[in-house]
Amino acid sequence: MLNNLLFVGAMFTVFWGTIFPLVSETVTGDKLMVGPPFFNSVYLPIAIATIFLMGIGPLLAWGKASAESLKHNFMMPVILASGFGGMLFVLGVREWLPLLSFMSAVFVIGTLVLEFSRGVYARQKMTKESWPVAFLRMIGRHRRRYGGYIVHLAIVIIVIGITASSAFEVETQRSLEPGQSFVIEQYKVTYMGLWEQEKEGYSRTFVDLKVESSTGERFVLRPERFFYETGDNPKTAVSIKSSWTHDVFATFVGWVEGTGQAVIEMKVIPFVSWIWFGGYLLIIGTLIAVWPDKRREVA
User: Fold this and answer.
1) Residue 212, SS3?
2) pLDDT tens figures, 249-260
3) Are 112 and 155 within one domain?
4) Termini Cα distance of the chain
5) pLDDT tens per residue across span 67-124
6) Domain that holds residue 238
7) What is d(CA 45, CA 101) in angstroms, rounded to the nearest whole number?
8) DSSP sequence for 165-201
9) What is the DSSP letter of 229?
């Protein structure tokens, strides 16, 4: 019940933060924006409490919990979470909300690994099946239970992505002449030049940015701006390079006519892909949990 209330609270936080600019503009005439500090201070505490309860739930044998069983069930996840938190602290993470969020996530992952491994071990002991076969058949026979666990894992992955992307985003804005470069995180960004194209009904202006990573990776980003003859507001197309660890965003802010000088905004945001992956995993877990059981239909 408490978990459901926290879920509703988290959803309302995101919903309110999203519609608040529209509400403020309607009521006061001024469009007030809600930034990352709002979500970090309101959403993260709710998310931490939610995923912490997710970790506790599977390991509690309701009505049978003793001090010894609690110690046995929680020791490994607590050690993992504490060790991971200590490692992050040594690496320079000092903000308590991201620290707690990551520690809670590792705690839940530890409890889920424990639950899955116990289930597989018990099935192997009875059936002598191989690990992969026992794993898949265990999920097939107990879809609601293990589908729910997969949903829990998906939510944890999403929270990790949201926490990392909001807490460790790096951003810079530069005014550059063609050929000039700057460095953001492990990337050297070189402004190659600005081009304009006239199309039917609109014009397109874009810049090319050559990006070189300290690991040797090279790619080109091409952010654009579109201007319409109808007088509609210009539209900006952000150029993105995605990976499992982080995304690189480039935005073409503006330029000085006749000079080739352009204003570029660059962002390096970690773990954005984890949010997407968590969303897909959430769908998979939900489908497993709600998939009809043929044995019950026959009965």
Assistant:
1) strand
2) 999 999 988 788
3) yes
4) 31
5) 677 777 788 889 999 999 999 999 988 888 889 989 999 999 999 998 899 999 999 9
6) 170-272
7) 8
8) HHHS-EEEEEEE-TT-EEEETTEEEEEEEEEEEEETT
9) T
